[in-house]
Amino acid sequence: MSTTLFTEKAYIGGKFITGKKTFPVINPATGRSIGTVPDLTIEDTKKAIKAAEKAWLDWKNVSVGDRCRLVRKIFELIDEHKEEIAEIMTKESGKPLTESLVEVDYANSFMEWFSEEGKRAYGETIPSTKPGTRLATIKQGVGVVAAITPWNFPLAMITRKVAPALVAGCTVVLKPASQTPFSALALAKIAELAGIPKGVLHIITSKDSKGVGKELATNTLVRKISFTGSTSVGITLMQQAATTVKRVSMELGGNAPFIVFDDADIDKAVEGALAGKFRNAGQTCVAVNRFYVQEGIYQEFSERLITAVKKLKVGDGLKKGIQVGPLINKDGLEKVKNHVEDALAKGATIGTGGKVIKDLFFEPTVLLHVPHQAAIAQEETFGPICSLFSFKTEEEAITLANDTPFGLAAYFYSSNIFRCQRVAEGIESGMVGINTGMVSNASAPFGGIKQSGLGREGAKYGLDEYVEVKYLCYGA
C-alpha cells in the first residue's frame, strides 16, 4: 500500500498521535489486517474537544474567503491523491476499486461545492415597523461540531459534514467507524497539507463507540452533533444531546421502495435497479430494499432482472472487473442470511443466488413473490438482495411504499408524467428518484423524514445546519 496518506496514528490538536492500546483494521475481502490504529479513550476525546474549542476562538475570525480557499485546497489535494485514497478505501471497506474511485469523486464534490457555497451564508435586512430602528440578521458558525460517521462510505459521509462545518467557521471532532478509520486519517493528512490550522480538525479512532459517542453528545463545549448511522443509535445520541440542548443532524436508517409501473421502460428500470441495489454490495442507507412491480409486467421485469443479476462479478474489490464485494463483517452476513431464510420460510422463492459463496461473500440474489409479512419488508437488509413484491394499482403501490417507519429514499419508474407527479408527491420520503436509481448530488439536499432522520446534508441547506442566525437590532 502507498504510504503517502496512509497512517496508523490518530489526529488530535494538529498532531498525529499514538495510544496506549491499538486495534487492527480488517480487510473484509481477505480477513487480514491492513494495519492498526490507536484505541483512544474518553479522556482523549475530552482533550480533542478542548483543543477544538480553543482553535475555534481563532478559526471563527478567519475570513470566509480564506476558509473557503483552504477547503478548496483540500479539494485539489484529494483530486491529486484520488487513486491512493481509493485503494485505502477498498482495503478497509471491501468495496470494488471502481466504486471507491467514484466515491472519492463524490466525497470531493462536497469540498468543491461548499468551498463556493460558504461565501453565500447571507444575512438579510428586515424592514422595521418602528421609525429610526434598523433590523438585520447575520449567520455565524455554531462552534465545536462533533461528527460520527459510518463504514459504508468512509470518505463521503465525512466530507459532507466537515466541508460545510469548516467554511462556516466551526471546528470539528470526528469519530469515524472503527472498521474504516484510514480514509478519515488520510483526510487529516490532506487537511494538514492544505494548511488547515492546528486544532480545527481532530480524528478520534476508538473501539469504544458508546463511550466516545456519549462524551461527544453530552460535553458542554460541543455545540452540535452530526451523526450518520442506525436509527437506534441516533435515538440514543439525540437523548444524550438533549441534556445540553445541542443542535443535532441525524441521517439514519432507510427502507427504500423501488416501484416499477406497467408503463415503465423495463430495461431502464432494470438498469436503475442494479445501480440502486448492488452498489457497495447493497450496504448503503439509500439502497433499494423493497421492489414493488405492477402485476402486468412482474414476470417480464423479474426475468430481465435475474438475467442481469446473474452477470454480476463477485470478489476482492482490488481485482479487475469485480462489481460486488464482501459484506463488512459476520454480523452483516448473518442478517442477510436470516432475511433470505425468513422470506423463503414464509413463501418466497429464489430467482437466483441465495447462498454464501465463501467467507463474507454472498451471492447477488433475487427473491420472488415475497410476502408482505417477511422481515425483509420492514427491516433494512444491507446486503445484495432484491426482494420482489407485486401490486395492482397506483394507490396500492403508494400505500405499500409508505408502510414503514422510515422515509429516506424512494424510487419509481413510469413514463406517465402525471403519474410521476402524483406518486412523487404521495410517497413519504425525503428523496425520490424518478426514473433513476441514483439520487445523491452535492448540490441537492440529502436527508430523510420519519425515523430516517433530521436535517439535510449538501446544497445550501447543508450549510444552514452549521450556522446560527443572529438578529441585530439598531436603535434610533
Q: Which features does this protein show?
A:
Ald_DH/histidinol_DH; Aldehyde Dehydrogenase, Chain A, domain 2; 14 helices; 7-stranded mixed β-sheet; Succinate-semialdehyde dehydrogenase/glutarate-semialdehyde dehydrogenase; globular; Aldehyde Dehydrogenase, Chain A, domain 1; 24 strands
Q: What does the model show?
A:
The protein has 476 residues and is α/β, with parallel strands linked by helices. It folds into two domains: 10-252 and 452-474, Aldehyde Dehydrogenase, Chain A, domain 1, CATH 3.40.605.10; 256-441, Aldehyde Dehydrogenase, Chain A, domain 2 (3-Layer(aba) Sandwich), CATH 3.40.309. 38% of the residues lie in helices and 23% in strands. It contains 14 helices and 24 strands. The protein has helices at 42-59, 64-80, 82-93, 97-117, 156-168, 182-194, 209-218, 231-242, 266-278, 298-310, 330-345, 394-402, 417-426, 459-464; strands at 10-12, 15-17, 22-26, 33-38, 124-126, 134-141, 144-148, 171-175, 201-203, 222-228, 247-251, 256-260, 288-294, 349-352, 356-358, 361-362, 365-368, 385-391, 406-407, 409-413, 431-434, 449-450, 453-454, 467-474. Strands 14-17-18-13-12-20-21 form a seven-stranded mixed β-sheet, with helices on both faces. α6 (182-194) links the parallel β8 and β9 (201-203). α3 (82-93) packs across α4 (97-117). The longest helix is centred in the N-terminal third of the chain and has 21 residues, at 97-117. The chain is globular and about 70 Å long. The N and C termini lie far apart (66 Å). The model has no long low-confidence stretch (mean pLDDT 97).
